[in-house]
Structures are given as C-alpha cells and as structure tokens.
Amino acid sequence: MTRPGIDVRAHLPVAAIFVATLCYGSTFVIVQDALERVTPMGFILLRFGIGALALVPVALLVGWPAAPLPGPARRNRSGRAFVAAAGAMSVVLFAGYGLQNAGLQHTSSSNSAFITGLFVVFTPLVETVWYRRVPSAQVLVSVALVAVGLLLLTGSELSMGSGDTLTLACAACFAVWTVQTAVHAPRFNPIALTAAQLGLLAILSIPWVLVQGIGHVDGGVWIAALVTGVGCSALAFSLQTWAQRRVDPSRTAVLLTLEPVTAGIVGWFVGERLGVRGYLGAVVILAGIVLVELGTRGGRERRDAALDLALDATGAS
C-alpha cells in the first residue's frame, strides 16, 4: 500500500531516468569489446538501426506522432513540426557521437570519459539561454560536485589537446540534445520521437560506413548491437524522453552522471578496479545526485510553468 502523503507518480520520471542511466552504464564492457572488431560508425548503424526496427512498430501503434497531452501540446501535432524536431535532435546527437569518436583517436579513454561527462556543466548554460532563467543554486552546486566526482572517477588529466577539444565539443552537443529533449518531449509522443531519431541516426551513419567500412561483424557484435539497440536506445531513450516532460534539463544531466558509476560497478564484477580515487569520485557523484534531488522537492509546478514557456518559445501558439 502507498503511504499517505507520498505521490508515487511524481517520482516516476526520476525513476525512469535512473533506469535509462543503468541501461547506458551497464553495457560499456560489451560495447568496448565490439568496437575492437567493427568501426565506430558501423556500430552506430547496427545499434540505431536495430533500435529503430524495434521501436517504429510500437510508435505506429501508439499514434505517431501526436502527443497525448492537453493544452498547448495539441497545437504541435503537424507532421512538419515533428520531422523538424526529430531532425534537429538527430543531427545534434549524431554530431556528438561523431566528435566523441574522432576525439578518442587523439586522447585517452579516461580524458574522453571525463570531458564527455562535462555535458553536465554545459547543460545549465544551454538551459539558461533557452528558458531565459538560471537554474537554482542547489542545482549548480550539484553540477560542480558531479564535475569533481567525474574527474576523480575517470582519473583524467587536465590537458587540452586536439582530441580533448573535439570531445569538449561532443559534450556541448550532448548538452544541447538534453535541452532539446526537454523542449520537444511535451509536444510529441515520446516513443514516436525516439523512434524517428533512431532511424535518422542510422541513416546519417550510412555514408560514413560506405567510406570507412563496417569491420568484422560476428556473434558478439550482434549481441552488443541488439542489447544496446533495444535496451540502451529503444527503451532507455524513450524513458528519458518521457521523463524529461517533467524533469529539468540540468537536473536530468546530474542524474545521468550515474552512468559512469554504473559502469564502474559493472567493471568491478568483471575484475576491473577503480582504486581509492575512483571510488571517492563515485561517492561525490552520488552526493551531487542526492543534493539535486533534495533541492527539487516540491518544484513540479515550476517545471510545468517552464514547459509552457518552452512551448511558447518554439512557436506553439
């Protein structure tokens, strides 16, 4: 039975983001193994192609692309607006993945992990520009804590070579995409919006695969593509998109930093150890997540008002 005074439904969006983050972080080992045999763009094609094939039939069943919300959302049901939103989000996300892969060729994996995680710092900046409001002081403190935790967890060195610069641009893209998701999630069905992005990401990767090749696709690669395509893309992206109807972008970014913590836990089970510094970083990240959650209790009404402002800014009227 539900305890009196606790609205379980109000916590479902945060729970959805946590589940999505667990999906993202738990597959690092199998993806790393697959990338030893296929090209990065080849894996993107397999992953998002499988994700699209899994999700498009569901999207058609639930009413592509209408959003089942009352009010301003009903004025955003046109196919043109849907394609524009999905297209813009896909281009930004594809650029993020491309920049990350390019950066990995010129920097260490630890630097890449840390700098990519800095999207949590960029997100409040993008959110401030879009919503014309500064996130709360508690959110900003949580962002700072998480950034420090990421530095400790990844063991990164504070350097800025060409690969680090590319990866920093990747982090900025992921921050923009996080805010885009918050803006467009209330306007369209989240499953349909996710399905369209997955399909477009697969299509965008085809020219690169034709030039670079796909590599050697064996059983292990297919398993990794299936797990990430269905679990980390079709399921996790849909959960995050749905949740961002009610969770601020900056708060979402902080919650998503549970991903490297999850990856570290999974790595522990396969024999990898983070060391004292790494485990300290994980604790600091968790502290940042707890802080941002404690600071957002009772803020649902503010989020609803922000959603209305976002719809006005996108020309919903």
In words, what does this structure look like?
76% of the residues lie in helices and 0% in strands. The protein has one domain (12-313). Helix 3 (40-62) crosses helix 10 (219-243). The radius of gyration is 19 Å and the shape is globular. The N and C termini lie far apart (42 Å). The protein has 14 helices and no strands. The chain is mostly helical. The model is unreliable at 70-76 and 298-317 (pLDDT under 50). The longest helix has 26 residues, at 79-104.
Write the layout of secondary structure elements.
Elements: H1 8-26, H2 28-34, H3 40-62, H4 79-104, H5 109-117, H6 119-131, H7 137-154, H8 162-184, H9 190-212, H10 219-243, H11 249-256, H12 258-269, H13 275-294, H14 300-313
Number of helices: 14
Low-confidence stretches: 70-76, 298-317
Q: How far apart lie the N and C ends?
A: 42 Å
Mean pLDDT: 78
Tell me the total number of β-strands.
0
What class do helices, strands and sheet pairing give?
mainly alpha
The share of residues in extended strands comes to under 5%
Q: How would a textbook summarize the main sheet?
A: none
N-to-C SSE string, H for helix and E for strand: HHHHHHHHHHHHHH
| Helical fraction | over 70%
Shape: globular
Rg to the nearest angstrom?
A: 19 Å
In short:
The chain is an all-alpha fold. Helix content is 76%, strand content 0%.
Defining key terms:
single chain, 317 residues, mainly alpha, 14 helices, 76% helix, 0% strand, globular, disordered C terminus
